[in-house]
Amino acid sequence: SGSLTSLLPPPGPVTSTPLSTTTTVRPTTITTTASPAATTTVRRAPLTTHPIGAINQKGTELHPITAAAPSTRKPPSSNQHVSPELFCEPKEVRRVQWPATQQGMLVERPCPKGTRGIASFQCLPALGIWNPRGPDLSNCTSPWVNQVAQKIKSGENAANIASELARHTRGPIYAGDVSSSVKLMEQLLDILDAQLQALRPIERESAGKNYNKMHKRERTCKDYIKAVVETVDNLLRPEALESWKDMNATEQVHTATMLLDILEEGAFLLADNVKEPARFVTSRQNVVLEVTVLNTEGQVQELVFPQEYASENSIQLSAKTIKQNSRNGVVKVVFILYNNLGFFLSTENATVKLSGEAGAPSPALVVNSQVIAASINKESSRVFLMDPVIFTLSHLEAKNHFNANCSFWNYSERSMMGYWSTQGCRLVETNKTHTTCACSHLTNFAVLMAHREIYQGRINELLLSVITWVGIVISLVCLAICISTFCFLRGLQTDRNTIHKNLCISLFLAELLFLIGIDKTQYEIACPIFAGLLHYFFLAAFSWMCLEGVHLYLMLVEVFESEYSRKKYYYLGGYCFPALVVGIAAAIDYRSYGTDKACWLRVDNYFIWSFIGPVSFIIVVNLLFLMITLHKMSRSTAVLKPDSSRLDNIKSWALGAIALLFLLGLTWAFGLLFINKESIVMAYLFTTFNAFQGMFIFVFHCALQKKVHREFSKCLRHASCCLRSPPGATLGSLKTSAIRSNNRYYTGTQSRIRRMWNDTVRKQTESSFMAGDINSTPTLNRGTMGNHLLTNPVLQTRGGTSPYNTLIAESVGFNPSSPPVFNSPGSFRESSTSLLSSSISQAPPEQQPGRLRHGHPAPQRQLQQQLLPPQC
């Protein structure tokens, strides 16, 4: 095989002697197969840089620099059968025509017309595209650069040269002009220092002459600083940013770091040549500089920069910090604010903390604020401050940026290279638009933030928004149905359903507030109010859920439900406990209600524990009561095996309460994981569970409850009956309905009476003649129990037969004739009430099974309700 080396075209004539040439050869080799017997090897062309001759060389005669002939790559001839995708297409970028270039090759072309130097552009290997960063025009300089460099060498007045440099940079500039201007300012600073030495006061001279020298020194420094600030403003204006981007990344960092250092040195040079107290301020659109010289022997006040105008960016030094850094009773302070400079201070190797999504690519780190600098006596960056410096910076971009990091630019004065660090800095407060930081040292500060890709953020935001709106609307409808059911159906007016009703009301209000107010972070007053209400109603929901566990336990340990309702105690625990927690939290730190991301509780200062702590306590208490309830039921069922389904109901209710507890608990577990890790998976889980809580409650407490089904059936039957009957036939329809309900009394009512009396009869028989057999026999003999009850005077009425005789006789095979319930005169309600009252009143009070521990005939009232026609 033959090896062919690509040849460069012969260079054009060089009209001047090159002052400095640095050649770097990178041995990247690309091999293309032309035929089975031949290969073509092309080596990358050397990268040649042409530094500005007059800036870094002394004692060398200056000559105009002209560009060398272009170095281009010609595509191989067609007979080599090279695939066209091996070349980057020809294109024009930055007023330079770039030819078709082989992959992995670096092509060099003359700089744009009107500039001097060589530009380069790389065709990326394996991709077949040009470098997305664009061409490197770092060596492209305007003719005026050599002119200013020549004047610096000749020793002209530094302030005048600085003014000329400012004038040149007002027009179009190129990448080489930016870096050259910064290097020229560095040389001007050395010349200015030497010129100021010649103006020092001399003891032998008269006081008037020395005064004139001091005045000239101060005026020269001020003129120089004004011109340099104007030059920096020109380099940072939006039109010049493209020139910065034409540099490579290393050159950008080096130039930006030099600019920071040179402007600070010039400001302290001015501070050394003014008499205290003094204050000098020069302001431009892209840079603001302030020099303050204070006498610290008297009273000292804090310094705030800037003072001349209202600004969203500020920095504050305490009076204690100023006195701490006093030197011989004098302190010199320099403040500088830069616009657009942070774009070119690389975030690579930055020591910041970022939280990203699991499995997702790391977010891009960007400088999302202006750069603000504060220095005292040139060495404050290495001095620990007793009182930290406080600064507030506005965010350049509000959307798709998160994780604010208070950082400073840590650089080496020798290499003029650096990196962002958070050492000694902490975050005080942040929102969507601003961040406040505190640092224990002084230097150049900025806020670094993670940047999320716009399209990913919008897609996830849209999907989460759809899930939230659809799910919460469904939940609100389900919760509204539950609230209506528990409020308007008479048969459901129990303590347990009161708990369910208030649980639904709390969740309904919480979900409604979540839907309309969780993202209203732009309202400074409304957002904290929304956060406080969400805090309260979600705590109330957990409290009512815990009260259900307590109520189920009390139902288990009591034979009958207490005649006295516990509703007032439940209301006290369900609403007062959350109010107490929220009140204490607001009294401690009301400013922590509402964040830049959502109208919720702050996480960074642990304020979120005012929600996590009470919820964890409530969950533990609830689980404790529910576990005790299930344990007691398992023991009672194993020993007694009662005929009633009461324990079965309590068991199913307890299991439903546990399921609901885990539902609410998991929802907020996902929410906390999302807050801490910002995982998109946790965001979807939290949004989904939170949105459909109301639907789950509807299923557990309404759709699956037979009692709710029966109450709705009664309402429907009563409504249809009222609609069919004319107004005058109401009494007759009631009588007919009562007669037809006779069979229901001997069927459905018997099962209810049997359940109601089962536990009471068992208690009585256990305490009388069967007390000795209960431990040996798990269930009662039906014949024995029937014989006992048939002879029991408690169940006999004055009229002879009691409705309970039928029930008991049916249990043991005895069938007396049906009681004449409807033969007595009067209305149905009167006959049924008198019959029940007469059957129970014959027994002594202590033997009346209808009386509870408080002496109230609850079973009698329940039976009366059963005999009445169904009502809503």
UniProtKB/TrEMBL annotation:
Domain GAIN-B: 278-455
A biological-process GO annotation: cell surface receptor signaling pathway
Membrane topology classification: Multi-pass membrane protein
Record's keyword annotation contains Signal: yes
Residue spans crossing the bilayer: 462-489, 501-518, 533-557, 569-588, 608-631, 652-675, 681-704
Biased composition (Low complexity): 14-24, 820-841, 859-872
G-protein coupled receptors family 2 profile domain segment(s): 85-144, 464-705
KW Nucleotidyltransferase (keyword) present: no
Subcellular location: Cell membrane
Cellular component, GO, one term: presynaptic membrane
Region (Disordered): 1-24, 820-872
Record keywords: Cell membrane, Disulfide bond, G-protein coupled receptor, Glycoprotein, Membrane, Phosphoprotein, Receptor, Signal, Transducer, Transmembrane, Transmembrane helix
InterPro entries tied to this protein: AGRL2-4_GAIN_subdom_A, GAIN_B, GAIN_dom_sf, GPCR_2-like_7TM, GPCR_2_extracell_dom_sf, GPCR_2_extracellular_dom, GPCR_2_latrophilin, GPCR_2_latrophilin_rcpt_C
Pfam entry (one): GAIN
Name this polypeptide is given: Adhesion G protein-coupled receptor L1
Gene behind the chain: ADGRL1
